[in-house]
From TrEMBL:
Protein name: Predicted maltose transporter MalT
Keyword Transmembrane applies: yes
Gene3D superfamilies in the cross-refs: MFS general substrate transporter like domains
Keywords: Membrane, Transmembrane, Transmembrane helix, Transport
Species per Swiss-Prot/TrEMBL record: Nonlabens marinus S1-08
Domain of life assignment: Bacteria
Pfam hit, one: MFS_1
Keyword ATP-binding listed: no
Location, primary (coarse class): membrane
Entry GO MF terms: transmembrane transporter activity
Transmembrane parts of this sequence: 7-27, 47-68, 80-97, 103-119, 139-156, 183-201, 244-262, 327-347, 354-373, 379-401, 413-440, 446-466
GO cellular component, one term: membrane
Length: 481
């Protein structure tokens, strides 16, 4: 028995929770480094402070994938219990994040936030394969990407919108996160839980009996424990997953470089407005710590130095707002790209390999161009538009290729294991990889964007490794290789 094809709105509703997931990721990606800098972290330390995020994914993703494959709740089904749990935990972390008073506190909450988002995200990937026949899977992942694009653009623009439109301040005392960022995270928490509930209430999952009856169901295997199953899955990883893993490695290294260092790189290189170090303006004790008055306010050297710090910090916050807004363009262009693919893949097959290669090359060019536009932030629109084409493809094509080559009964686990190729490059980048590589070119943070461009082009070339015809182009007559 074939799975019935679903209409656009059915696929939209089952993917709508990704709006909240992406709100969480976009606020994290566009604002987290700004929070770290505000709390006193140096720009070279920022990638290391992000390491909690990929470490959480490395641990959580395969476990949640296995558990969601082997869960059936009478009312919530197979994947939806994890959507709900992840949404509740993520919303709590989003609410508390901007109130961090120390770097270690923000890094700890980043660990909680990323782990919680992953609890919701991986079952969403598997739900597409659960619900859709193979002929609609490219379509399903592209619709997810469309929603992700909407979430990225809106969330990235929130701090600037709150400041410019609602007059909520984007300035604060040294070491304090501005109110505009705090409220943006609060809005993100509300959107996260609301969008997940929309999917939970509008989407029905197939029961285990129904899943077993479909033509793409695999033969039941002898039940093993979670760790034995995960270990055997790593050991018997299909060839297509390994080849896609090479593509993913270069792709996600590039985007980790962007998320961690775009704000310091672009505020400095494009806007000439780096984060001022309060120690250069304030009174210090014998241990080189900033002195505070009885109200815990910074004691500046004099009024002139306080005014200078305030002016430079205002310029940095304005630039950071604009960097976040410009980064939102990559969500907007990924949305447009996904919309184009949605209409096309609804009625036609596509060559996933060629689409992915071309998209990654365009994204790489977008990153490389950033070095050549100092003082001209308007060109960042073009740069991030090109990056968004790569992002739209990264969020759809590899998953569509993989889902065509994986047993449906292990889809959640396979998607979790596949994400090893997302988190490992980020861990390597966080442990010094991105700083080391960009320092080989020059000390300025903008060279991290150059490294991102080079790595996206390497990811594009890595697609040449993929030869599985069923993964490249869906055709019902092609069997798995």
């Amino acid at each position: 028995m074939q799975k019935p094809k679903l209409g656009f709105w059915d696929i939209w509703n089952m993917s709508f929770g990704f709006l909240g997931i992406q709100f969480g990721f976009a606020l994290q990606g566009s604002t987290m480094s700004r929070i770290f800098e505000t709390l006193g972290a140096s720009k070279d330390d920022i990638p290391m402070l992000w390491i909690a995020a990929p470490l959480a994914g490395l641990i959580v993703q395969p476990i949640v994938g296995y558990l969601s494959d082997n869960t059936w709740h009478k009312r919530l089904g197979r994947r939806r219990p994890f959507f709900l749990l992840g949404a509740i935990l993520s919303s709590i972390a989003l609410l508390f994040m901007p109130f961090s008073s120390e770097v270690w506190m923000a890094a700890g909450l980043l660990l909680v936030l990323d782990a919680s988002i992953n609890i919701s995200m991986e079952p969403f990937r598997a739900l597409v394969a659960d619900k859709l026949p193979e002929s609609q899977r490219s379509y399903g992942f592209v619709v997810q990407t469309l929603i992700i694009g909407v979430g990225t653009w809106i969330a990235s623009n929130l701090p600037k919108f709150l400041n410019n439109t609602l007059n909520i301040s984007n300035e604060a005392a040294p070491g304090v996160v501005p109110d505009s960022v705090k409220i943006a995270f609060g809005v993100g928490a509300l959107v996260f839980i609301t969008s997940i509930l929309v999917t939970i209430f509008t989407t029905k999952e197939y029961s285990p009996e129904e899943m077993a009856a479909f033509d793409d169901a695999s033969e039941p295997e002898e039940k093993k424990g979670m760790w034995a199953t995960i270990s055997s899955t790593y050991a018997l990883m299909p060839v297509i997953m390994k080849k896609l893993g090479v593509v993913q490695f270069f792709s996600w290294f590039a985007f980790f470089a962007m998320w961690t260092l775009a704000n310091p790189a672009l505020t400095e290189h494009i806007y000439n407005a780096p984060k001022p170090d309060v120690k250069n303006f304030a009174q210090l004790d014998d241990s080189d710590n900033v002195l505070l008055d009885a109200n815990q306010a910074t004691l500046f050297l004099d009024q002139t130095q306080e005014d200078a710090y305030t002016t430079q910090d205002k310029a940095y916050n304005e630039a950071s707002d604009d960097v976040g807004s410009k980064m939102g363009i990559y969500g907007l262009s990924s949305m447009a790209f996904a919309l184009l693919l949605t209409f096309y893949t609804a009625y036609n097959s596509i060559n996933r390999k060629v689409v992915h290669m071309a998209s990654l090359v365009l994204g790489g060019l977008g990153f490389l161009l950033m070095f050549y536009i100092p003082g001209e932030p308007e060109y960042l629109v073009l740069c991030f538009a090109l990056v968004g084409i790569a992002w739209g493809s990264i969020l759809s094509m590899p998953y569509a290729m993989l889902s065509s080559s994986v047993e449906s009964s292990k889809m959640g686990l396979m998607m979790g294991v596949f994400n090893m190729f997302i988190v490992i490059p980020q861990i390597i980048a966080a442990l010094g990889g991105v700083v080391l590589l960009h320092n080989l070119i020059g000390e300025e943070s903008i060279h991290a964007m150059t490294i991102a461009g080079i790595f996206l082009i390497l990811a594009a070339l890595s697609n040449l490794l993929i030869t599985n015809k069923k993964a490249i182009t869906y055709q019902p007559s092609i069997t798995n290789e």
